[in-house]
């Protein structure tokens, strides 16, 4: 079988790894994620993704109907990676429910830094998580991990004062996302005198104190 090669990486000058026809689809996804990272989700065409992958534009349509489908698949893979990282962080924090919950927040920041192309495809591309059943399932699984962590931690709150686990986790998710967007993406003019990790940890601490899960003097 004939083997195609990636074009040289413009940033490193080194040739990218080769691929066979069997993983051409993944090569296109990887190329799109690189373009998303450098140009944004609307800053490239399918033809440019094909060129980045070292194939003809016609080859793209064997696997994807359009750019949005390509981005959606990158988002789906991102959610799967994200869920694995969140689950690992949660498990590592056990047996303390509080430590496990805080670890998931740090994992959110780590994912955004390490996988910016996936992060943008997931949260900034405008692609609905309901675009495909597979994407919806992957996103739901990722959210479910944080929701389960919130539900476990909520068991320490009197039932009459206990917020729904879905609301609890949504608040932390929103806080984590805000810290990433404002302070973890090194946007000019938005640098804070604290690290994103410190901002998120203190924010989660304030939230948990308000729920009575942390003593005021802790």
Keywords:
disordered N terminus, Arc Repressor Mutant, subunit A, Tetracycline Repressor, domain 2, 218 residues, single chain, 2 domains, mainly alpha, 63% helix
What does this structure look like?
With 218 residues, this protein is mostly helical. The protein has 2 domains: 1-64, Arc Repressor Mutant, subunit A (Orthogonal Bundle), CATH 1.10.10.60; 68-210, Tetracycline Repressor, domain 2, CATH 1.10.357.10. Helices cover 63% and strands 0% of the residues. It is built from 9 helices and no strands. Helix 1 packs across helix 2. The radius of gyration is 20 Å and the shape is elongated. 33% of the residues are buried. Mean pLDDT is 82; it is low at 1-21.
Low-confidence stretches are 1-21
CATH topology of the largest domain: Tetracycline Repressor, domain 2
- The helix/strand order is HHHHHHHHH
Count of separate DSSP helical elements = 9
CATH architecture of the largest domain: Orthogonal Bundle
What is the CATH H-level superfamily of the largest domain? Answer: Tetracycline Repressor, domain 2
- What count of domains describes the coordinates? 2
Distance N terminus to C terminus? Answer: 64 Å
Round the Cα radius of gyration to an integer and report it.
Answer: 20 Å
Q: Averaging pLDDT over every residue, what do you get? A: 82
Summarize the biggest pleated sheet: none
Shape: elongated
Q: What percentage of amino acids are in beta strands?
A: under 5%
In short:
By secondary structure, the protein is an all-alpha fold. It has helices spanning 24-39, 46-53, 57-60, 67-93, 97-114, 116-123, 133-154, 165-184, 196-210.
């Amino acid at each position: 079988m004939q083997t195609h090669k990636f074009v040289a990486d413009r940033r490193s000058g080194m040739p990218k790894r080769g691929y066979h026809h069997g993983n051409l689809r993944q090569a296109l996804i990887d190329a799109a994620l690189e373009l998303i990272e450098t140009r944004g989700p609307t800053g490239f065409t399918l033809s440019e993704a094909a060129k980045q992958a070292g194939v003809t534009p016609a080859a793209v349509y064997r696997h994807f109907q359009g750019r949005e489908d390509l981005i959606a698949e990158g988002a789906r893979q991102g959610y799967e990676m994200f869920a694995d990282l969140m689950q690992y962080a949660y498990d590592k924090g056990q047996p303390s429910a509080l430590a496990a919950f805080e670890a998931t927040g740090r994992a959110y920041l780590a994912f955004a830094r390490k996988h910016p192309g996936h992060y943008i495809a997931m949260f900034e591309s405008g692609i609905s998580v309901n675009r495909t059943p597979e994407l919806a399932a992957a996103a739901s699984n990722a959210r479910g991990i944080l929701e389960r962590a919130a539900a476990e931690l909520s068991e320490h709150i009197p039932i009459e004062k206990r917020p729904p686990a879905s609301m609890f986790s949504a608040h932390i998710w929103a806080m984590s996302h805000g810290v990433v967007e404002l302070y973890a993406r090194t946007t000019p003019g938005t640098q804070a005198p604290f690290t994103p990790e410190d901002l998120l940890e203190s924010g989660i601490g304030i939230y948990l104190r308000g729920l009575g899960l942390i003593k005021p003097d802790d």
